[in-house]
Specification:
The structure holds 2 protein chains of 2 kinds.
Chain A lengths: L4 H32 L2 H7 L1 H33 L3 H12 L6 H12 L4 H8 L4 H8 L2 H26 L3 H8 L4 H30 L2 H7 L6 H10 L5 H31 L6
Helix pairs in contact in A: 1-13, 2-13, 3-8, 3-10, 5-11, 8-10, 8-11, 9-10, 10-13, 12-13
Chain B lengths: L2 E9 L6 E9 L4 E5 L6 H9 L6 E6 L2 E2 L10 E4 L11 H11 L4 H14 L15 H13 L5 E5 L7 H18 L3 E4 L3 H7 L2 E6 L2 E6 L1 H6 L4 H6 L4 E9 L2 E4 L2 E4 L10 E6 L5 E2 L8 E3 L1 E7 L4 E7 L2 E7 L7 E3 L6 E4 L1
Parallel strand pairs in B: 3-8, 3-9, 6-7, 7-8
Antiparallel strand pairs in B: 1-2, 1-4, 4-5, 9-10, 11-12, 11-14, 12-13, 14-21, 15-20, 16-20, 17-18, 18-19
Helix pairs in contact in B: 2-3, 2-4, 3-4, 4-5
Classes of the chains: A mainly alpha, B alpha+beta.
Chain lengths: ~280, ~350
Amino acid sequence: MSRSPFLLLLLAVPGLALLILFFLLPLGAVAWQALAGDAIQRVFAQGDLLAALGNSLLLGVEAGLASVVLGVTVALHLARLPPGRRALLQVVIALPLTFSGLIVAYGFILLLGRAGFATLLLAELGADPAAIAAFLYDRPGLVLAYSYFLTPRVILTLLPVFANFDHRQTEAAESMGASRMRALIDILAPQVTPTVLASFALVTAVAFGAYGTALALVGTQINILPLRLYSLIADAGADFPLAAALSVLLLAVCSFLMAVAEIAAARSEADPHVRT
Amino acid sequence: MSVVVDSLAFRYPAAGAGLDGISLAVAPGEFCAVIGPSGCGKSTLLKLIAGFLSPAAGRIRIAGTDMTGVPPRLRNLGIVFQNYALFPNMTALENVAYPLKLRGVGRAERLRRAGQALERTRLSGLADRHPRQLSGGQQQRVALARALVFAPGALLLDEPLSALDAAHRAAMRDEIRAVQREHGIATLHVTHDQEEALSIADKVAVMRDGALLQLASPQELYDRPADRFVAGFVGHANLFDGMVSGPDLVETAIGPLACATEGRPVGTAVTLLARPEAVRTDPPDDAVNRFGGTLVRDRFLGSLRRYDLAVPGGTILGETLSRGDIRSVQIPPDCLRILPA
């Protein structure tokens, strides 16, 4: 039974209304505010804002790399476990995804802050508590905290690909004379690389835009884009046009990274020789 | 270029299943099929020979060299896996060239040799296709070319035909055998399909519960099975349990059967085997081992007709070319074979 196009349009109205009201309108307002005045020019005139962009990119790439390296290792291990134990561990691994960034930050302060549990233990061994705290309250600390909640994302996106990989392929390669490592590089790596790249782009985008954990851990002492944006909205000297311009910049970078992720994922699906 | 397995034992830690001292030898150029029901240990045997599992006891020699404990990559074996295990990230040509690449053969030379190998399996036109773009039979041929291109010491086939449909399976069977003859390579073929094993192999090993029951030529396996399990597993069979009741006479559930009891004393429990094609229809009234009954199942298979005749005390399975009605059959005494009970 076919329905009239008019009826179908009518059914789409509530969804469209929501989309316009809560997505397109606010986005348009921000873009308008950013582009209407001289806000964009002001961003590029202010050296410290450009530095914040650079710092954020660096932080995103560092946290992304750390999470991907850790995630690939864990996913490889999980893929080899029997399904029952794998499911159990997956639940435990997914848990950090449910924590808010503030809680994660607080947890790390309790662990590695000046009077943190691990800090005090390490101090017994002769480490300097101030040095450990300085590590936590700066970019390395942020990379650590971000990796904590980004690694599970990497694991959960990679696990199906690794688990579905037919290990008889590497066995076949070994029977032909390849070492274990050679088989992984020649056979496994080309098949999983697109997914790993997509996962890297995804978590880098998240790390680039994250601010809750950063705010709780380092306050506004570190010059990164999300925190600059925050202070432009929250502080006494609010500057909404400049905040809007930074938002557009943030949005552009994140969209670019997501596009990279999408293209990598689509490539792996369209490619006749890579199964995901 | 031979495979010799000597008292090979293996036990899976959890299941308790495994192998109990298997010994068999495949001579150069010989084709040996290993059959048995699932869980009999035939795949375990293959994995042990390939080196993917380590035996608890026993030795494995390939082409005269002791390979026990040697990693798979140094055993120089060509293996065709059940699902072919082709590399999806490479073309058919690159798949076949890969073992040569591992052996340090230069690019131009290895592509030339891989191309030749594909030509021999009639796949030259598909060299640039990826495995996903090939049919099951074509993938199978690529896998076979890849397993043979580096002149391995022996060829292992792990149920290579089970993923193909019946029509392709018979054709591939002949093709595998032809390629194997051409290379003159010792081949071990694991399968659950007894018909496949009988039709392709020089000799067949029948396994059950981790033990080797019989190793013999297909004809001998069929005509002189070692026990009732082998008799029932290989081909169709009438099996009658009974007891020797006199000179050349065995008492069974369907009545006394005349057959050569080979001097067994009265009272010995035995099993009698009669292949269905040996059962004769509509014998003369005074024939020995004659049974009258009613036809309960009748299967027309084209070239022959397989039927079940219900007789007092049991059923007789027979095969005939006749299309007429069947009311009585004879099991000729010289077609009855005595097996241990």
